Amino acid sequence: MNIIGLYKKEIKSYFNSPIAYLVVLFFVLICNVYFFLFSQFVARNVANLRSYFALMPLIFIILIPSITMRSWAEEKKVGTAELLFTLPLTNWELVLAKFLSSLTLLAIMLGITVFVPITLSILGDFESGQIIGEYFGTLLLGAAGLAIGQFISSITSNQISAYIFSVVAILFITLIGDISFFMNPTAVLSKIFSYLSFSFHFESFRKGLIDTRDMFYFFIIIFYFLYLNVKVINLRK
Amino acid sequence: MIQAENIEKKYGSFTAVEDITLSIGRGEIVGLLGPNGAGKTTIMKVFTGYHFPTKGKALINNYDVYSDSLKVKESIGYLPEMAPLYNDLTVLEYLLFICDVRKIAKEKRKKEIDRVVAECGLEQVINRPIEKISKGYRQRTGLAQAIIHSPEILILDEPTTGLDPNQIIEIRKLIKKLGEHKTVILSTHILQEVDAVCNKVLILNRGKIVARGTAEEIRKEMQGDFRYSIILKASDIGSVKSSIEKINTVNEILLFDKKDNGLIDIKLSVKNDTSCGEELFDWAVSNNFKILSMIPEKVSIEDIFIKLTAEGDEK
User: Fold this and answer.
1) Do A83 and B87 touch (CB under 8 A)?
2) Distant-in-sequence, close-in-space partners of A7: CB < 8 Å, separation ≥ 6
3) Phi and psi, residue A214, nearest 5°
4) How many contacts does A have with B, using Cβ atoms within 8 A?
5) I want to staple B217 with a disulfide (CB 3.0 to 4.6 A). Which of A142, B136, B153, B213 is the partner?
6) By the 8 A CB rule, do B141 and B62 touch?
7) Domain residue spans of chain A
């Protein structure tokens, strides 16, 4: 696999532009302001971070697209897509390099928030296993969003439309379970809808449980959209 | 090195090129010439593996551009029409990225980068963000990217656009130098470029090759004769015209214009330039005419280009 070169370049591009810093800053601020001010964590006197992680799917709806919107749309606009497609790289290498670099940015972002549980562990008795499960689930949730966003970036020609369509797509797949609740459909349909949704599969992670079925759900979503991404960049031919 | 057999490329229902058959050997610099939309870029994109042909076969070093695209891409350096640069990287970062992807060994990198920086004249901008450099430097950075891995084949889409005259001369020199050991395909619509750089020309119109060969061969094929433009001084003007017609090598009098001051402007279409020049001179001497100027005129590549591409329009 020849993905290191492009991976390094993508990371450099993120941190050479203000976007990465803004995204990380925004994420850390929102998480903590919400957690400490609005959910009144300290007042509730419980030693877990469920309400902290409950917010992640909603934050990711607006945050993940801002990481992936440039991915392909910018390459196409500037003309560098032509370079990438004529360098000795396979389509999978191109797609994976881009995906892994955005995943790295996400991991860095989550990594910065680790100081919250570490600080709180001085105050109370937190279960480290639970927190690891919560972080792992959040990373998977984010990765699935990144795969969707990257795919959408490959079918749009500018960043703005890539962002808007990605927000709509991730919003839809996150909340499809809850939408079906309002539509009052038959019980089976409602189950199918909720089974397809991000929030349904994030639920057990949020409690700190690692359920392989949920893991596989996110893996399948990631693989499927990366696969679609590979197919789309093949269409240029 | 480069072979194409009956290549056809369609975009939807639009046929960009059809029936392209060509063969290019090592050390040849081939110019693709044609009006906008003639299919130059499409042919290049097929050879670089960016597009795949709808019909026909394209081979680079005997590797098929479709089934062996990685091998093909390794042996090619490609500069697209718009230099493909990342504005948020510096020139050095960009070249290092290309080294990474092209798998140039770590210990060789400095040498290779120094080489292309010198060849493309990038010393002054090496640490500047690409966003901040001029169009000329952008083009040269793009070229540096294309030659950093010393590819056997270089494909350059309008490599001199946006450069100033001095830079154009330098880049042409560089291309010529590279062409001694490599195969170069370049497209251009600057006609002098073909004469200055290329040793073979393909003229395209509406997706088809309408002429091929060396510039000299195309000239001959297009125009079997040469022309002379003569200014003559003669006391007996009346005898001039009738005596010209008796010269064997003269095909046609294109212009015969008497000036007020006793001079005559003559344009002749002749069969062969070397002996004809002598014959015309002898003719003037024996008739006691004085030749004030006698200029052989080559048919320019512009004339050929206009003629070939205009013919296509009539169809």
Assistant:
1) no
2) A97, A100, A101, A104
3) -65, -40
4) 74
5) B213
6) no
7) 4-234
CATH, range B2-221: 3.40.50.300
Q: How far apart are the C-alpha atoms of A148 and A142, rounded to whole Å?
A: 10
The residue type at A143: A
Whether A120 has a pLDDT exceeding 90, the answer reads no
In this complex, is the C-beta atom of A82 within 8 Å of any C-beta atom belonging to chain B? Answer: yes
Chain B residues contacting A via beta carbons under 8 Å: 48-52, 70, 73-74, 76, 78, 80, 82-89, 93, 97-103, 129, 145
Q: What is the pLDDT of residue B279?
A: 83
| Closest listed residue to residue A167, CA positions, set A86, A57, A98, A65 | A65
For A220, residues 6+ apart whose C-beta sits below 8 A from its C-beta are none
* Six-digit token string for B282: 């002898």
pLDDT at residue number B126? 95
CATH entry, B225-298, from 3.30.70.260, 3.30.110.40, 6.10.140.1670, 3.40.50.300: 3.30.70.260
Distance from chain centroid for Cα A163: 13
**ipTM of the assembly?**
0.87
Count of beta carbons in the 10 Å neighbourhood of residue A148:
27
Residues in chain B where the model's pLDDT stays below 70: 222-225, 272-274, 298-301, 311-315
Coil, helix or strand at residue B210: strand
For residue A60, what are its two tokens? 């990711």
CB B94 within 8 A of CB B117: no
Residues of chain B with CATH 3.30.70.260: 225-298
Give DSSP secondary structure letters for A142-178. Answer: HHHHHHHHHHHHHH-SSHHHHHHHHHHHHHHHHHHHH
Does the beta-carbon distance from B86 to A9 stay under 8 Å? Answer: yes
